[in-house]
Amino acid sequence: MNAIEVNVKNGYKVIVDNGIFDKIPEYALTLADYTTVTIVSDSNVAPLYIERLKKGFLRANKRVLTYVIEAGEQSKNLSNYAAILSFLANNDFKRKDLLVALGGGVVGDLTGFVASTYHRGVDFIQVPTTLLAGIDSSVGGKTAVDIKEGKNLVGAFYQPKGVFFDIETLNTLPEKEMINGFGELVKYGILMGGTLWKNLLSDNLSLENCIADSIRYKAEIVEKDEFDNGVRALLNLGHTLAHSVENLSGYTVPHGLAVGYGIRRIAKACKNNGLLQNSEYEQIINVLDKFSLTYIAPFSDNALIRASVKDKKAFADSINIIVINAIGNCSIQKFKLDKLGEFFND
Ligand SMILES: NC(=O)c1ccc[n+]([C@@H]2O[C@H](COP(=O)([O-])OP(=O)(O)OC[C@H]3O[C@@H](n4cnc5c(N)ncnc54)[C@H](O)[C@@H]3O)[C@@H](O)[C@H]2O)c1
Questions:
Q1: N or C: which end of the chain has fewer CB within 10 A?
Q2: Confidence band for 316, pLDDT divided at 50, 70 and 90
Q3: Whose CA is nearest to atom 42 of ligand 1?
Q4: Pocket of ligand 1, candidates 124, 132, 185: which has the most ligand atoms within 8 Å of its Cβ, to mutate?
């Protein structure tokens, strides 16, 4: 079992292991003596896992409520946010009770945002069931919903009380969702280097170790910059072009594939501009291919760059891009917008 500490002001543990699912209620109930537990999940995950989780809390004589949203990004919206708040209020869910996010990043972000505002903040735990949520979105306290003007535009920094990731839940995850998670996993590999990168290169990869290393890396970054004013931007490696691809494709290209493409392009640009050694560039391309991150965007560089300017990470006449100097050594570099085309030029 890996128990990774996230040492922020209200610190917590991320527990990662195979086969811990039925123990999660027991772990959660060591946090405080809750009366009511509300489990939020989605229409794909709930039929698979919600009864098992519920059973454990019932066995401990807790009152258990469940709330299931339609699966998919379109559910991460203000009307579900408001509906869950009303559900909690109508069911006498109190300030000292516990919310549980059971699912992927959509459920996690939405439930976390509810938790951050209901009664000005109630306890919540994350029970991620996708690779992306397990290594990325469940850790670090970013919660949000989308509005029509943009993704994740309304949200809060609000840390969970604990994260409990049973890797066995990935056995039911569709392959395309695994590949989505691989996009973020390769990102962590390049950022961290070391054991994680070696593992990704290996023919005998240990997914559990990859997951634990990614979380450890994310925890360290969050500890240094909980509110995303500095080094946390490193986690956007590959994401500027990825967001452009998602925008230009009307969100038909899955996030992980878009991130894979973003990493491919930034790695090539870094090699072409003399920042990254050719041998490491080739390793990156091989790892992207190995994890089926082979999508190539059909959009012109001009269109991609124009779209990135609209992205929320762009400032007036310049944009921060995460560059790869070496595997395990990335940095934040500010580019004048009119120089970006040159940088990405093949
Ligand atoms: N808060 C953060 O720091 C952060 C970071 C990265 C991404 N995100 C957000 O995360 C979201 C994407 O998360 P995601 O990729 O987990 O998507 P998701 O939550 O939509 O899950 C993907 C799909 O897999 C299904 N699913 C989940 N677990 C399953 C399982 N074990 N078995 C079978 N089906 C399962 C879901 O029902 C859904 O259809 C986006 O909204 C993104 O903005 C947040």
A1: C
A2: low
A3: 105
A4: 132
The tokens describing 58, both together, are 């019932």
Q: Which of 8, 107, 109, 259 to mutate to test the pocket of ligand 1 (most atoms within 8 A of CB)?
A: 109
154, 196: one domain: no
> Which of 172, 199, 216 is the endpoint of a domain?
172
Q: Whose CA is nearest to atom 9 of ligand 1?
A: 105
The secondary structure of residue 318, as a DSSP letter, is E
Express each pLDDT in 66-115 by its tens digit. 999 999 999 999 999 999 999 999 999 999 999 999 999 999 999 999 99
Q: Tell whether ligand 1 has an atom less than 6 A from the beta carbon of residue 173.
A: yes
Helix (H) or strand (E) holding 154: strand 150-157
Residue-by-residue DSSP string for 164-206? EEEGGGGGGS-HHHHHHHHHHHHHHHHHH-HHHHHHHH-TT--
Residue 250 and residue 314 share a domain: yes
Average pLDDT of the residues in 320-335: 96
* Mean pLDDT score, 106-130: 98
Q: Is 236 in the pocket of ligand 1 (CB under 6 A)?
A: no
Q: Is 41 in the pocket of ligand 1 (CB under 6 A)?
A: no
Here the CATH number for the domain that contains residue 156 is 3.40.50.1970
* CATH, residue 275: 1.20.1090.10
Whether 261 and 195 share a structural domain: yes
Q: 109 alpha carbon to ligand 1 midpoint, in Å? A: 9
pTM for the complete prediction?
A: 0.96
Q: Are residues 318 and 190 in the same domain?
A: yes
Whether residues 334 and 246 share a domain: the answer is: yes
One domain for residues 99 and 43: yes
Residue 273 is part of which domain span?
175-344
Which residue type occupies 131? L
Task: Please give the average per-residue pLDDT across 170-177, as a whole number.
Answer: 97
| Residues 149 and 206 occupy one common structural domain | no
- CA–CA separation, 335 vs 241, rounded Å? 14
The three-state secondary structure class of 96 is coil
Averaged over 167-179, what is the pLDDT? 97
Ligand 1 neighbourhood includes 180 CB (under 6 angstroms): yes
